[in-house]
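hey m, so remember when u said the tokens were messed up on ur end? i reran from scratch. heres the input so u can diff it against urs
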Amino acid sequence: MSETDKKEQKRMSVGEHLEELRRRVFKCVLYLGVALVVCLIFNEHIQRFVLAKPNSVLVDLYGVEKAKMLVTGTVEGFLTYLKIAFVAAFLIASPLIVRELWGFVAAGLYPAEKKYVRLFAPISYALFLGGVAFLYFAVLPSALKFLYSFGIDPEFHEMKPRYSDYVSFYMMMSLIMGVVFQLPLIMLFLISTRLVKPATFSKYRRHFIVGAVAVLAVVSPTGDAVTLLLISAPVIILYESGLLLGRLVTRGKRE
């Protein structure tokens, strides 16, 4: 830590730290509140986007003119409406929220640690969005086709997914894919901080692939091979990307 940072920490009392924390938390709540208002205003469009894939799959599978989801509870529609708006607002406001939290924590970090956080934070956000987009455009169509047709006989069953169940399912899978897409960043961080060598990742490549496919088979929304392949392929590509970036960083440090 530089002398300037040390002097700054000495000048700030416990009360001043708490005041700084209070000020930044207030800003985070303000950012989230503004984003929530915006998302509530445009929530109808957000809902249409979220429900477009399952409705399209239902139309293709059962030939209905317009698919609709089932709402059974008195407050189910209202609570799900708020849930969609809140999650969308948090996703939008998260870069500003992270910036405020980073500003509070940064005073206690070394310059090298600050450099890593400044570099990795925006990349992490972009990777998370990439995972969510990959789920929506690549995984959901095949996964929903399997889920909405397996064990369903149109002669005896009428497929009407429950509104709140699907939204919860979609959010859970979005979180999983967003976290999965952090893999190259985690690998790069471990290599950059010299906690793990690139050779170690290369040595245990096969173990990782087998383990990753096994875990994804458990958390996968379906049990079919097509969906498992769609989820597993990018994980393997992400692993190889993290390994390649780690080797480049290690080579650059040596030179």
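this time it looks ok to me. Residues 3-181 form one domain. if urs says something different then somethings off w ur setup not the seq
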